[in-house]
Amino acid sequence: MRITVLGTGVVGRTLAAGFERNGHLVTLGTRDPAGTSHRDDFSEWAGQHGAIPLATYADAAADAEVVVNATNGAASVSTIEGVGAEKLAGKVLVDVSNPLDFSQGFPPTLSVKDTDSLGEQIQRAVPTARVVKAFNTVNAAVMVDPRLVGDGDTTVFVAGDDEAAKETVRGLMTEFGWSDIVDMGGIGAARGLEMWIALWVRLMGTFGTPMFNLKLVR
Ligand SMILES: NC(=O)c1ccc[n+]([C@@H]2O[C@H](COP(=O)([O-])OP(=O)(O)OC[C@H]3O[C@@H](n4cnc5c(N)ncnc54)[C@H](OP(=O)(O)O)[C@@H]3O)[C@@H](O)[C@H]2O)c1
Q: Could you tell me which of 124, 68, 116, 115 has the C-alpha nearest to residue 91?
């Protein structure tokens, strides 16, 4: 598939490399392609993944079948609005973002919760895109390799209003090795998936590592 990942942070780079490894045609979107290509962390990574092109967010999204939002949560809605409803119409839009607010230090608070979520805000911003909340509940490295924690059989989630879009995302997760993928229903369930992060950051503080995940036992 033609997959565009928006954002060149650790999540964007990790997912982009993972999708490429699984045989997809990947493009990375960034605010400033020239500036990003000279950024130390990015140029080191690009040395190993030179085949993945870099473009502005809007240009990168134009030809994609699947667009992944891996931008900072505070910037996600404006980034998606900037790409525009026209370029995202009908596309699967995988939202990996979390609404973390570090302005008061650690642990962060959630900038939206309880009555709304970033996933829903993004779906409202681009109503014709098919938004699926996914991957946001685990660390970047674990997203693309579930075998990094436990026996590799922990749980991830999808939430979204479009069944076919969720199937597409399930397929991408399965390629990474995920087997326990729980469908949470509509995009409103993004509230729960994002609020899990309040517990996740505290567990990270307790364990001293982000390499863990939850496993649902029925
Ligand atoms: N880190 C994890 O393991 C993890 C796990 C689960 C979910 N998440 C979520 O996934 C998303 C990406 O996380 P991340 O850790 O890769 O990095 P991040 O620090 O949250 O930022 C990701 C990227 O957002 C882009 N961005 C666009 N507008 C921005 C602005 N105004 N200010 C700052 N950045 C802006 C930047 O990419 P460009 O410079 O290329 O434009 C930046 O590299 C976040 O929403 C995060 O909460 C992270």
A: 68
